[in-house]
Specification:
Blueprint (H helix, E strand, L loop, with lengths): L19 E8 L5 E10 L6 E6 L7 E6 H7 L4 E3 L2 E5 L7 E7 L4 E7 H14 L11 H8 L9
Antiparallel strand pairs: 1-2, 1-8, 2-3, 3-4, 5-6, 6-7, 7-8
Length: 155
């Protein structure tokens, strides 16, 4: 367990929900944990997505975009498939969830403290409800980017 389990938000007047800085444990193997601090960010312009930045010793950190619903669901049950999955740890230990991130180059498993992430996610849902996540999305621009970027043909 980390000596500092604080999750001090970085305050900003322009952000309705400040970023969450959270101490995680990266599981290097079955017995070895590497403490790491991750920053979770919520952007009201794309509320269905949470960006999570993992610092690097040198250079820019690694950023993953994870569905807010996936994170919320993973606090209590198996959530996600493919490159991002999250599920609660076994009962009896500290309240936490496992977050598995996979790509062609890397696989990383993190133990995430449940309570501060749950509180932060609830704050994001007070700003933008789950039912309204896609209401303000520019679908034409989103689909154009998805199908080939700004130069994609439009119908």
């Amino acid at each position: 367990m980390h000596p500092d389990q604080s999750h001090l938000p970085v305050r900003s007047d322009s952000e309705p929900v400040p970023p969450l800085c959270l101490d995680l444990d990266q599981m290097l193997d079955e017995f070895t944990r590497l403490p790491i601090r991750a920053t979770f960010r919520f952007d009201v312009s794309l509320p269905a997505v949470v960006t999570v930045e993992f610092p690097a010793e040198r250079g820019p950190g690694l950023v993953w975009c994870i569905g807010r619903e996936l994170l919320h669901g993973g606090l209590t049950s198996m959530s996600g498939s493919g490159e991002v999955r999250m599920w609660p740890t076994l009962p009896g230990g500290r309240p936490a969830s496992w977050l598995l991130l996979e790509s062609a180059e890397v696989e990383a498993l993190f133990e995430v403290p449940t309570a501060p992430l749950a509180e932060w996610l609830e704050a994001t849902y007070r700003v933008v409800a789950a039912e309204a996540e896609w209401d303000g999305l520019n679908w034409d621009g989103f689909l154009g980017d998805l199908l080939g970027g700004p130069g994609a043909a439009s119908a």
